[in-house]
Structure to design on (132 residues):
């Protein structure tokens, strides 16, 4: 798969919590609109959550600034275009009517501290639908 036609949905994309870059196989196009929908559970050490992630515990608050996308919760589903964190796409369990600022391949990950992916487990499933 590469680009989606209007009205077309992707097959289910499995986003591994352990992988810092999950290649969706989908190329997003500037000027197009997309809906994102994600389900499932992944685990950060012993904390199990879905694609909306979780708020920091008192200890984890100390490390928030080191998350790959500091303004998004731990384990929030994040997308990027071409592995650039410059314009991170905060997806979570759903993101309707998203229009990318540039074209390129969609990559996804669980938002975590870069050096801590070794203790992550599980996958969430993401479906992308082009609406316009």
């Amino acid at each position: 798969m590469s680009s989606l036609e209007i009205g077309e949905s992707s097959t289910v994309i499995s986003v591994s919590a352990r992988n810092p870059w999950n290649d969706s196989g989908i190329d997003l196009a500037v000027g197009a609109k997309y809906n994102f929908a994600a389900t499932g559970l992944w685990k950060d050490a012993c904390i199990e959550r879905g694609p909306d992630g979780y708020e920091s515990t008192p200890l984890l608050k100390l490390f928030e600034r080191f998350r790959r996308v500091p303004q998004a919760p731990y384990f929030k589903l994040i997308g990027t275009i071409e592995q650039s964190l410059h314009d991170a796409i905060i997806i979570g369990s759903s993101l309707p009517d998203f229009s990318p600022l540039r074209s390129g391949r969609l990559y996804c990950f669980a938002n975590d501290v870069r050096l801590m992916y070794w203790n992550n487990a599980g996958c969430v499933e993401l479906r992308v639908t082009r609406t316009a």
